[in-house]
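Lecture 7, part B: from sequences to assemblies.

Below are the input chains for today's worked example.
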Amino acid sequence: MKLYRIVLKDIVRRKKRVLFAALGVAIGTMTVVGILTIALAGQARIYNQLEKYGPNLAVTPAINNVETQLGDLSLGTLAVGENYIPEEKLPEIRQIADGEIRKALGITDEGNIATLAPKLYINTEVKGTSIMVVGVDPKEEIKIKTWWKIEEGKYLEGTDQALVGAVAAKLLALNTGDTVDLNGNAVTVTGILEETGSNDDYQMFVPLETLQQAYGKEGLISSIDIRALCNACPVEVIANAINQNITGVRAIAVKQVAEAEMGVLERMNKFMLALGGITLVVGLFGVVNTMMSSVNERIKDIGIMRAVGASRNQIMRVFIYEAVIIGIVGGIFGYVAGTLLAYVIGPIIFAGTDIGFVLQYLPLSLALAIFVAIIATMYPAFRATRVRVADSFRSL
Amino acid sequence: MLEVKNVSKVYGGGAAKVVALRDVYLRVNDGDFIAVMGPSGSGKSTLLNIIGGLDYPSSGEVILDGKRIDNLAENALVDVRRGKVAYVFQQYHLLPSLTALENVLLPLIFCGANGGSYKKAMDILKKVGLEKRAGHKPSELSGGEQQRVAIARALVNEPSLILADEPTGNMDRKTGGEILSLFDQLNKEGHGIIMITHDREIARQAKEIIVLQDGQIAGKINSEEGGGTINVKEKVV
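Predicted structure of the full complex, as C-alpha cells:
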C-alpha cells in the first residue's frame, strides 16, 4: 500500500468536501475554456471568410459623413457625395486592377484577369414585404459567388428573370415560375438559392439592366465586387491604386476588413481572458477557504499520522495528492462546463459558428485546474505541518 | 535506556503562565514497566509527550539511548517516532477511513518499507488476536478491539519503548484487563513500557510506580518490593 491509497480512501470518505473544492476550481477553468473555445470558433469563422473573400475588393461610392452641429448639440450626420457609381467607370477600374495584377505576377497577356461584378441595390416592397433587390451581371456574379447552389430551378439566363435567396423565398412564398412586380415591370422567378448563411439569403437577384430600367437608374451601380483570382494577388495595392486614380469611389480589400475584425476579436479575447483570470483567482480563494477548513477538520488525523512516523514532507504530499485529485475532477468539470458555456454563448457573439469540444483544451484545462488546486492547498498544508503533534490532540 | 534530566515545561507567560512540569528526573531502563499516576493536570501527559518527542520541554534534557532528543529538529524527531518510541492513546487515534490492517500498516508506509509489510502487519494483528477483524474499519470495532489495533500499530516498528496514555481509560474492567495483560506480555517480550493510569490496580502490575503532583515527582515505589503501599501524601490518590 502506498501513500496515495490512503489519500484516495480519505477522499472517498469526504467526497462532498472534495467535490466542493473541485467545483471552486471548475468555475475558473470553465470560464477560461469557454472563452478560448468561443475565441477559436470566432477565429475559424474569420479565417473561413478570409479564405472565401480573401482575394476580393469592394468598391463603393465615396460618401463622407459630416457631423452637423448646433453649438454642442449634434443634429445627426449628413451624407455628402454620390450614392452611385457611373457604369462607365467600370473599364477604368478594370484596367487598374488587371494592371496591378500583371505587375505583381509579371505577366503581359492582354484579356481580362480580374472579375468585376457590378451591383445595383434597390430596396422595394414585394407582396407587401420590404426586400432588397440586387441588380447583377449574371455572368460575373457567379464567378464571385462560387459557393452559390441552386436549390430549385436554374440560374439567371436572360432579362426579366429573378433568382431568390432561400429565406426571402420562404418569407414571400415564392416558387419558380411565379412572377414578381418590380415598379410595374414583371420578372419571372427562375431559381431559388440554397441557404448560404449570408445576406444573400434575404435578397432577390435580377439582371442589372432589368433593375436599372425598372427604377430609372440607367448607367448607375451601387457597388462593385472585384475578385482578384489569386490568393497572392496584391489586393491592398489594387485598392490603393483605385482610390488614387478614380474619383468618387472608395475601394477596400476584404482582407483588411477581416484583419480589422481579427484585431477586434483579439482585443476582446484578451479582455475576456483577463476576466477569466480574475474568475480563476476568485475561485482560488474559494478553494483556499475549502482546503483551510478541510485541513482544520483533519488536524487530529494529521497528528495521528505524524505520531506514527509521518514527516512534514509526507504530510505535504498527502495534501498535494489530494490537490491533484481535486484538480483532475475540477479540470474535467471545467472543460465540459466551459464547452457548454461556449455552446450557449458562442452563437450570440458570432452568428453561425460551429462550437464543439476542442480536445486540445482538455490537457490545458486539467493543467490549469491542478495548478490552481495545488497553489490553493500549499498554504493550508504548510500550516498543518507546523502544528505540534501534542497540540493537535489537545485541541480536541 | 531513557533518561529525563531536570525537565520543566511551562505553558504561556505572565499571569497566564502554567507550569506543567517542574524539574522532573526519571530514569527508565530497557525493559522497564513504569506506571505514572497522579491527579488530572499533574503533568502526566505532558511528560509522556516530551518523552515521545511530540512536544518540547522548556528546559532540561531527554536522553534516549545516549542521544539527546529534546533539542532535535522536527525532521530528526521523525526518526525517533519511526523506530524507538511508539504511542498508544486513550482515544485510540486510528484513522477512520482505513481498515484495521491499513492502520497497522501506516507506520510502515511512512517508513517507506516495501515487501513483506502486509505479512508483518497481519502477523501483529494475529498477535493481538484481531486477524479476523483485519478488514474492518474502526467504526465497526469495539473500544477494546480498536485499542488492540492501536497497540498493533505501535508494535509494527518494533519499538524499544511504548508510551501508553491511559490505554484502558475508556474500557470496562474486563476489557481493560485484557488490554493490560497484553501490555504485560509485551513487557515480558522485552518492550519497555511507560503507562499513565488512574487505576491503582492497574498500576500495581507495573514494576515501578511514579506519582506526579503539580508537575513534580511526589513519590516513587517499586511495586515488587513496596508491597503495594504508595508512600506519598494521602490526598494524591
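Note for the exam: Residues 3-50+260-394 of chain A form one domain. Keep this in mind when comparing with the next example.
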